[in-house]
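COURSE: Structural Biology Practicum
ASSIGNMENT: Worksheet 4, Part C
STUDENT ID: 0417
INSTRUCTIONS: Below are two proteins. For each, the amino acid sequence is given first, followed by its structure token string. Answer the questions at the end about the second protein only.

PROTEIN I
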Amino acid sequence: MSGAMQKRLQKELMAIQKDSPPGVKVNFNNIHNNLTQWIIDLDGARESLYDGEHFQLQFTFSPQYPFESPEVTFIGPNIPVHPHVYSNGHICLSILTDDWSPALSVQSVCLSIVSMLSSCRDKKRPPDNALYVRTCSKNPKKTRWFFHDDSV
């Protein structure tokens, strides 16, 4: 890991620890000395369809971070049922691919995911969930996403 990447990740870790968004908490049991993979505990926002539910996000940082987006997936036994979340934990969210900017951070990604979940009106999987899960790469960053919402 480069010194610049390590410095950036340490800064982000301190920032999210000091001022984490509501319902977002770094799981320090999984970070140890390896800053390249984080587990974030995420609670569903109050008064949303996910109120009272608990999720985990895994962030994996490549050596090109922050110039390249982290790989972010839901992990564990509770993957949210959502039109932009596949049953394998892959998340269809533009800031994780084409709309990534080095100005974004773990904190801003978490806020975007909480917002995405909070705005959900109907708990359902993406229309192509079964096919996608059967044929996709293990790394969601290798997916060429089709944003179903864009076709409306």
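PROTEIN II
(use this one for the questions)
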Amino acid sequence: MRIVLITGISGSGKSVALNVLEDAGYYCVDNLPPALLPSLVDALVADGAAKLAVAVDARSAQSLVGLPANVKRLCDEGHDIRIMFLTANTHSLVARFSETRRSHPLSHQLRPDENPASRRTLIECILEERERLSAIEKLGHVIDTSELSANKLRAWITELVEIERAPMTLFFESFAFKLGVPLDADFVFDVRALPNPYYDLALRPMTGKDAPVIAFLDAQPSAAELLNDIRTFVEKWLPSFKTDNRSYLTVALGCTGGQHRSVYMAERLAAYFSPTERVVLRHREQS
């Protein structure tokens, strides 16, 4: 059975991800206590189900500690398991809860020593949830949704689900430093030292995927040198990450606005590695 396990911080888009998987034909279960996961899989296999998506959150705090063991057991039984951990910065989470006017799931839970008349603030709930989930964050692929629209998150989830089982997937992601560094990045390269096409009025409305911008940066010796340095670094260390049984490696390229230089570099790197590696290309600041 193919199993997609979705976990992460409340407000980071788990419901959006689960809806995408439901539309893709997965049997979906929300807020399942992790201790029940093996029993659910056994029951669905007996019924002939082939695909399952399960969302797990911090409300199941007591059984979260057993999740790694349950995942290992299911893998040993031959199931194809993928784990996605969705997160976002606190500022984005607060804004989302404010927009939807929904309460945080942990706001309804009392600590043993907590006065029933008191209620934790949203910030306190978010911090406690991060602490509860910290042990399982590294089990899967981390997706930072801080600057993602719902549509873009849907596209990313769809892309991940369609990737067949492989030793490792190499992600190249462009982004804007002014909007924050992606939380899911394993390596971050700053390409702001390159000449900026933004200051050419003819190039300003374009992106690093447009031919005139590509020609502009191709003509810069510093762009070729930096591209070669990053490419060499990734090539050198890629085998080590494969040996470490990593499923994903994310290389983020950042410039000021996330439109020209970072996009150009991500495109160039993706094109270079695509013939030999499983590559996914992302441009965070482009719709």
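ANSWER KEY EXCERPT:
Q1: Residues 169-283 form one domain.
Q2: The chain is about 40% helix and 20% strand.
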